[in-house]
Amino acid sequence: MPKRLIPLTVALAALALAALPAAAHAIPFAPEEGHSPNADDTTTVYWVMFVLAAVIVAAVNLALIAAVVRFRARRGREPARVRSGRGVQPRAAAALAVLALAIFVLGIVSTSAVRDVESSGPEGLQAASGRTAQLGLEPPAGDPEPLRILASGQQWVWRYEYPDGTFSYYELVVPVDTTVLLQLDSTDVVHRWWVPALGGKFDAVPGRSNETWFKAATEGTYDGQSTAFSGPGYAAMRARVRVVSVPEYETWLEQQSADIQSAQDAVQEQVGGEETGSGTEGAAAQ
Hints:
It contains 5 helices and 10 strands; from the N terminus they run ααααββββββββββα. It is an alpha+beta fold and about 290 residues long. A hairpin with a 2-residue loop joins strand 1 and strand 2. The N and C termini lie far apart (about 110 Å).
């Protein structure tokens, strides 16, 4: 092999090794696998941008290597002087401008697509509700309303409130194949809700309301974190979404509501007992 081709061969071999297929978890720069339509759109844009960047980096470096190999100084010979043609720079600038415009259009289109809320699927809460099946009713006609949940960020935990008033901390439980419309707010400072498998990052700002959505395609547990510094306990602030079947979600919701009511009743009994005891002691003292 000619010596002048060795650097080019090494560069091509390194590029081929970097592009070999591998599992997603084995690629350090790969995003987490998406399990929601909006997360899939974000992942697609990521890979498009990654491929474009890789192609540009490879083209620039290969051009530099080719120039060095071709025009390097040799023993007993002066290095060649090369001048670019007058039309090279305008053509390169025009190509980069077209590429930048294409990336801009891709960003606009993908952002619009991510914000379009999809309807729940056939296995979702509205279509596959256990109560609906028990009553022998048909699923509601038209696009069902999404499941609306309020997510409140506070130092340093997330509180989720469900449509029936039931609430939970840290872990959000939702049914599979159901569109979840998450309304974000904050009680103190700016927090950022992010579960990579279910979509992008969204801020929870005090005094303002922000929304995001997701529709988990498969059951499982998806972990996330807050990526906005919110104080000394920021590192411990986590977000977790547990996706379960529709019957399991309805059972969990009923049990959670019963547990909350039981805890509230216990507190009221304890407070009432303390007040009664205080009144008895006061009467005895008189």
